[in-house]
Amino acid sequence: MLKLWGRITSINVQKVRWALAEMAVPYERVEAGMEYGVVNEPFYKAMNPNSRIPTIDDDGFILWESNAIVRYLAAKQGAGTLSPANARAHADADRWMDWASTTLQPSVTPVFWNLIRSAPEKRNMKEVADQTVKANEAFQIVDQVLANRPYMAGDNLTIGDIPMGAFVHRWYKLPVERPAMPHLDAYFERLQSRAAYREAVMIPLS
Ligand SMILES: N[C@@H](CCC(=O)N[C@@H](CS)C(=O)NCC(=O)O)C(=O)O
Question: Which of 123, 113, 111 has the alpha carbon at shortest distance from 177?
């Protein structure tokens, strides 16, 4: 059976768990990361020299990097659904995975770390303010895309929604100001109607 290492509070583990749940793939999960340790143990470093989560073992095939894991699992188990078959439709979805990592994550993550994982006296509120502006600018691009389509790449949930949906949850649960983004609001509602999203992503921030 597929094995996944990683704690459920990690956004990168959430992406993998959500994809697995959408495709109803059975798996065994092993706690790892932060309070659970494990990531510096020799057996783990031999699989993932970054000492990061998630890592999967699929019948001897070891893979790390959350987006690569989601792409791999979708290609294997979700061809034609999560992983669009048509090359252009696939690229349309896939680009949002890169965009989430390169454009959303650099602004959302410092806000999350300051407000959720840092003691009040250690918070850099200037960084929170600056990165909140940048994250909201990025989310406004998503809001505009979603004016014309229910999911990032069209009518159905694809790999393009997996990192995006995880970041949208995080952003909406952070105590920050957000501009009106009606299409993004509707997207978040739409995602919440999916049992797999509720189970894997809607975990209180900690
Ligand atoms: N680019 C990597 C980043 C992995 C990463 O930074 N994971 C974090 C959790 S979201 C981690 O391992 N943190 C250390 C820990 O939990 O001990 C990926 O997408 O998988």
Answer: 111
